[in-house]
Each structure stands twice: as structure tokens, then as C-alpha cells.
Amino acid sequence: MGPVLRYVGRRLLLMIPMLVLISFLSFVIIQLPPGDYVDTYARNLASEGGSVNADQLAALRAQYGLDQPMLVQYLVWMKNILFHWDFGTSFAYNQPVSEILAERVPRTMLISLVSIALTWAIAVPVGIYSAVRKYSVGDYVVTFLSFVGLAVPGFLVALVLMLLVYDHTGFLITGLFSPPYREAPWSVDRVLDLLRNVWLPLVVLTVAGIGGIVRVLRASLLDELGKQYVVTARAKGLTEGQVLRRYPLRLAMNPLLSTIGWMLPATVGGEIVVSKVLNLPTTGPVLLESIQSQDMYLTGAIVLLLSALTIIGTVISDVALAVADPRIRYERSRAA
Amino acid sequence: MTDLETALDDDVRADERRRVPAPPGEGGGYTARRRAALLRRSVGGRRSRAAAREDLYEASQRTLVLRRFRRHRLAHLSLYLLVAMYVCAILAEFVAPYDKLHSFEDQKYAAPTQIHVVDEDGGWHLPFVYSSRTEIDQDTFTYETVVDTSVRHPVQLFVHGDEYELLGLIPADVHLFGTPDGQPVFLTGADHLGRDSFSRIMVGSRISLLVGFGGVVVSFVLGLLIGGLSGYLGGRVDAVSQRAIDLIISIPLIPLWMALSAAVPQTWSGVQTYLAITLILSLVGWTGLARVVRGRIIALREEDYVTAARVSAMRTPGIIGRHMLPALTSYLIVHITIAIPGMILGETTLSFLGLGISAPDVSWGSLLQGAQDVTVVSNYPWLLAPAVVLVIAVILFNFVGDGLRDASDPYQN
To answer: How far is A130 from chain B (nearest CA, A)?
Structure first.
């Protein structure tokens, strides 16, 4: 077995205890708010003028298993997830959590992945340009814009863009589809309508990611460009493009590969906030709602899913680093 | 060699070139006088430059960093502006013309008040505002600001108004500016209840700006302690703390923040909620710092001067405090300036989503809740004023952080 394979195997094995711990931690976090869903339910009923007696509440608790100790609840939840792919029932939607997620998670993932791809496609060339043409007008513009990108929170970018579109065209972007197409079957018009709406969350998430990557790439590339092997490569008669691609760029990409791990969860997290503002039918609004109403299995499943994504992302970026950089490969296979 | 040293060196060398003796046979006359003058000047100049150079060699690292930072104009200016913002935040009730809850019945959604010095007829006056109020437009159902240019109200400094307690201690009713006769001055407009947005931004900046400080202090202490111990002791302590950090980092930030801030009881007072939010923000913040501190400490442990200290029987706390931490200082300062804006943005996002600071307390995020509806903002764009202040503050922090990073890098140039 090659060292890379051995390393990948070891990383994958390490993932399992991490996933177990993280699932327990997610469960503890969702239990933190005082009270449970039955309290919320009783409060809602009371605010509507109805009333429930203590017996009914106790019966409800017993029905949902909320009267059990936390550890028991956790074990039951885990058992159902592992053996039946059953994430529990959402109290508020009165629907299995897995159904709600099956509908919304793919949308979140699609939006996140596309915007990550866009981020890279834009940030890498821009970062290279900014480093190679250091202190040019273009570099200053890029630097300034990336600072602004880092300074403006995603929800604000979304608000301002919505406002600009609304002011200039009178078109109000909410959700992924305009009202007439929301329930309609797929058609060319519906796809066009999707495109008219979906660009906004994509732009917001892309802008949020670009700044950081440009800064990191510019800094690490500048470090490499001053080194002697670059001078040697130039002296040997390589064109500037060849020099750049063959040596310093490969080294400068390393810090970027290690960002893969947190980029997916960060983008998904950003998507949660943005989708709340834009009222997208994705995981964001559901998560926020479920946290506020203590719809614990729904919250728990989303937090668990996102955490698992992060762990998987970290493994991917570690493996990518090991594949890309022989030094890291050597070091780690020795350590293993 | 730094810029300054190179520059000094060039000067000294130029002086030496000037002192080359004139060719023989050219004594007297203009050349001789010129030579003598040059000689005098260069000897004097050389002495002072040599002193400056001596000064530079003896300057401590801190002096060098400060000197380089001062030459970074943008960062330097940003630092002053930030200090001004913090002073305003601390003295918020004095700077704000009105109480954060003072609502003017006939000023709902009032536009920013224009301060004039020239009246309708072209006459010059001390700064004044015209009478104005808002009325519902019966066609569009939006509030319109109606200005009555027949009445002038002078704007003055240090006027008496709403009562407050300065720094929470000193009862006072003097405000930085305002009109003595009660006509409101809205620098950034008013909200849906006719409350002055500028006053609310000022009072809100206290929570928004200080949440960064509080959060950074907590995460700083945790990060330094855990990272330092983990790096220096190694072994089991290191393994446990590293796994714990891995675990915490694996929980996505925004859902974690959301879940935790939902756990803050609604019945808590403003100060309690603020402290809870600060803790929540720093709960994750320390991990990044701990990782880097650990890495640096491990690298430093192998340095010759640390070995030398150990060989000369210095104790562990002494080695860490005297030899290792100073090597980290510049990094830590930069880290703080970069971490604060992150916390500010975190608080704003949480409060905007309704999970952080809630009424009657205000922060920039909770103020921006009023700007959630695009159709409303489209009519009253000044509702976005808190966002402008927020972005400015965060950019200033980034500039200062960047300047500090450049200044603290001894290998620059």
C-alpha cells in the first residue's frame, strides 16, 4: 500500500470517533435552551386562547420521549439514524425530519457548491494578478475590494443588492422562484425565472468568499516570488507564465487547499443567513425557525449534518494537501 | 536592513564622496570656499546622522515597530478614527442628541435633517434647521418629510435635553449638539417610531464595539493559556487539547452561534445577554489562536536561546514569560486586531437574525432589523445608516491590522 493510501485510510478511521463525538455534542447543544417543544406548544396554544392541562402535556412528553433522560434520548436518536435512517420527527412540521431535509438540503448544497466553484474561478486568477502586478493600480483596486468583501456581512450584501434591483426594475427578489412559478412544473420559463432569482444568493456567497482567498493567495505567492529558485527558473529562459505555473504557484496553492475544509461549512453557514434574508426555500429559514421553537430533532439533524460536512471537508483538504505536496506526504507517512 | 537604515547609509556614503579632496593646483577662489563649506556641513551632518544611526541600532523592537507603523499613513489614520469611535461609544449618551427611546410622534420615518447656514433669501446665519415633520402621503401610504422654511431653529453645542447618566454614574442632561427649542435634529433620519437613528447608532455602538473587545479578551486568555501549555508541555496535554480544538472547529460556526444564543433566556437583562453573547462569540474564537500559539511555542522550544536559558537553570514560567512570549507579541497584537472585526460582524449577524441583543437594548445588528424589508428601505434608504457605520468600523480594524502586520515584520524589505 502506498503511503498516500495508508494516510487516507488512517484519516478515514480517525473520522469515526470524531463523528460520534460531534453527534453527541450537537445533541447537547440543541438541548441547551431551557424548556422543550411541549413548552413552546403550550405557549402557542395559550396565546391563541386555548389551554392544556398538565396531564396532556405529560402525555405529549411521553409520546415524543421527552420525559427520558438526555442520554437515553440521544441513544434512541442515534439508533434510529444509524439503523433506519430516521432523524426523528419535526414537531412543528409534523413530518419526518428526513423528508424536510431531503427537500431542502440538496438546494442548499447546490447553491453552496456552485458559489464555491465561482469563488475559486474568480479568486485564483485575481489573486495571482494581484501578486504578480504588486502595487499596480489593479492590485490596489483588488486589495481595496477584498477588504470591503471581508468587511461587509453577507446579509448586508444581500439587502443592498435586493434594494438596488428593486429600485431600478421594481422586481422584488424573494425565494428561488417568482410566485407564479413556485408550484409550476419544470419548463423553459421556470428555468429562466430561477436564473433571474438565483444569481443573487450566488453573488452574495461568492463575494463573501473571494476576499479571503485573494488575500491568502496574494500573500503566499508574494513570499514565493522573491525566492531564488524563481530567479533560477527565469535565468534558464522559461517564460513568465511557465515560471509562475511550474513552481511558485504550486507552493502558493497549499494554504488554499487547507481552506477547502472549512469553506464548505462556512459557505453553508453563510447560506443560512442569506437564505433567511432572501427567504429561500433552503435549510436556513428552517434551521432558524426550529431553533426558536425548540423543534429539537430538526435542529439536531441540521447541526449534525453540517458538522459531518465539516469533518469530511477537513479530511478532503488533508488528503488533497498530502497528494499535492510531497513534503507533507513524507512527513505524515513517517508519523504514521 | 530597514528602509531607514538604507537611507541613512546612502546619506553617509554621499557625504564621504563629497569630502574627496580637490585636485592639487586648484587652491583658493570659489572651489576652496565651496570645499570648506561642504566640509563643514558634512562634518556636522555626519555627526547628527551617526547619532541617529546609533539611536536606530539601540532602539528596542517596540520602537522600531511603532516607527514603521507611523509611516503607514492609512493604518495610522485608521487607528485615530477607531479611537474616536470608541470614545464616542463610551460617551454615547452625551454625543447622542436624544435618548435611545425618545420617540417624536410626528417624525415617523423622518429623513435626515439638513443643517443650513444660508436661508432661503441668501442670508447667512449660524447653523440652523428648518421646522419639519412627517405626514402620510394618502396615495402611496408612505411618510413624507414636510419642511417649513419660515421658521429657523438654531443648532447649538452643549444644549440641555434628555437626562442620562454619563458612564452610568454621573447624572447629566447636556448633549453635544441639538436645538434649544426642541425641534429635533436627525443626522441619519428617524425610525418607524420617530426615534433618532443617530442617537441609537451611538448607543448601539457601545454594545457592538465592546462585544469585540470582551470576546477577544476571553478568547485571548483561553487561546494563550491552552495553546501555550499544549505546546510547551506536549504529550498527553497536547493530544487532548488538540482533539478538543478539532472537535470545536468541526461544528459550523453560524448554527453553533444560533443554537447557543437561542439558549440565552429571554428574561435576562441587557448586560447579562451582552455577556452571554460575548462568551458565545469567544467560545470558538480561541481555538484559532491556541493552534498558532502552540505551533510557535513548539518551534521556539527548539531555539538555541531557549536551550541556553534551560541550561542555565531558568525555570519554566521564566522561560515562557521572558523568552517565548515576547517573540509572539507582534503576532498576538495583529491577531487581536483581525479578530475584533470578526466578533463585531458575528454580533451584528446574530442580532439581525433576532438571536442576539433585543429591545429595548440596541446594537447595530438589532437596528438593522428595521431594514429587513426591502420595500420599506426603498422608501427610507437612511434606515441602512447603521450598516454604513458597521462597515466603516470593520474596514478601519482591517487597515490597522494590516499596518501592524507590515510594521511588525522584521524581514520586510
So the answer is: 16
**Nearest-CA distance from A31 to chain B in Å?**
9
Q: Identify all chain B residues contacting A314, using CB atoms and an 8 Å cutoff.
A: 246, 250
Confidence of residue B413 (pLDDT cuts 50, 70, 90): very low
What's the Rg (C-alpha) of chain A?
25
Give phi and psi for B103, each to the nearest 5.
Answer: -110, 135
**DSSP state for residue A51 in the 8-state scheme:** -
Chain B residues within an 8 Å CB radius of A37: none
**C-alpha cell read off for B326:** 515576547
Chain position carrying cell 464616542: B88
Radius of gyration in angstroms for the set of CA atoms belonging to chain B, rounded to a whole number? 30
Given a cut of 70, whether residue B36 has pLDDT beyond it is no
C-alpha cell of residue B275: 455577556
Q: Do the Cβ atoms of B250 and A30 come within 8 Å?
A: no
Q: Give me the average pLDDT of each 10-residue run along chain A (336 residues).
A: 73 81 79 71 72 74 74 81 79 81 84 88 88 84 81 83 82 72 73 79 84 83 82 86 82 76 77 81 83 79 81 79 70 54
The distance in angstroms from the start CA to the end CA of chain A is 13
Q: Measured between CB atoms, does A57 come within 8 Å of chain B?
A: no
Integer Cα distance of B310 and B154 in angstroms: 72
Residue B130 and residue B152 in contact, taking contact as beta carbons nearer than 8 Å: yes
Alpha-carbon dihedral sign for residues B23, B29, B33, B34: negative
| Interface check A42 vs B, CB under 8 A | no
The pLDDT value given to residue A30? 73
Give me the residues of A, 174-193, that contact B with CB < 8 A.
none
CA of A251 vs chain B CAs: smallest distance (Å): 20
Q: Does B20 score more than 50 pLDDT?
A: no
